[in-house]
Amino acid sequence: MEKLDLKKQYKKLYSPSSKEFTILEIPPLTYIMVDGHGNPNTAQMYKDALQTLYGLAYTLKFHCKKVLEQDFTVMGLEGLWWVPDMQDFSTSSKEDWDWTAMILQPDFITPELFEEARRQLTAKGKGPLADKARLETYNEGTSVQIMYFGPYADEGPTIANMHAYAIEQGYALSGKHHEIYMNDARRVAPEKLKTIIRQPIKKAN
């Protein structure tokens, strides 16, 4: 049975340069999502969201492998981060953040498959926010991104430079700050963390 690897399928989206900003078109993609608010380092809801997301993702994987004979690699965590006025968005004020934690899914994951995974996970008592999770297609469109190496706390200058670059290229910021976590912060030293930082943009008037 061949295993689908979405990182390879969407190589341009998941292997950006770390030396220069790249503007590209992001196609509509389907994710399992959970919304929340507060500092991801301290909020219990964020921990519960991650437990739920990975529980659903692996339940879907094993169910599809058994029932559909389709296997896929579970993708890593991604996050959308925002505040009511994005001009006030700051990495130093994480308590004010709203967020959506999410994991990319293959195209063949249907609402029916998702609901079955939610039922199975809930029955096991391992999805604390299963009732708040959803399957949603997210259409990000034109975006600018870069691969960042280092601690999450030090992302600020890279984010500011990326925003400035987009504006210099004739764009305005639109949509939510997006981060894609390429390794596990629980197992990797902060200086070795790899994060794709992405920002949706639109042509300035």
Describe, in plain words, how this protein is organized in 3D.
By secondary structure, this protein is α+β, with helices and mostly antiparallel strands. It is built from five helices and eleven strands; from the N terminus they run βααββαβββαββαβββ. Strands 2, 3, 5, 6, 7, 8, 9, 10 and 11 form a nine-stranded antiparallel β-sheet that branches. Strands 1-4 form a two-stranded parallel ribbon. The longest helix has 25 residues, at 44-68. It is globular. It starts with a strand and ends with a strand. The model has no long low-confidence stretch (mean pLDDT 93).
Instruction: Tally the beta strands.
Output: 11
Report, as a whole number of angstroms, the end-to-end distance. Answer: 50 Å
* Helix/strand/pairing category: alpha+beta
The helix content is 25-40%
| Envelope shape | globular
Q: What series of H and E elements makes up the topology?
A: EHHEEHEEEHEEHEEE
How much β-strand is present in the residues?
25-35%
CA-atom Rg in angstroms: 17 Å
Helix tally equals 5
Ranges where pLDDT stays below 50 over 5 or more residues in a row are none
Overall mean confidence score, pLDDT? 93
Specify the biggest β-sheet: 9 strands, antiparallel
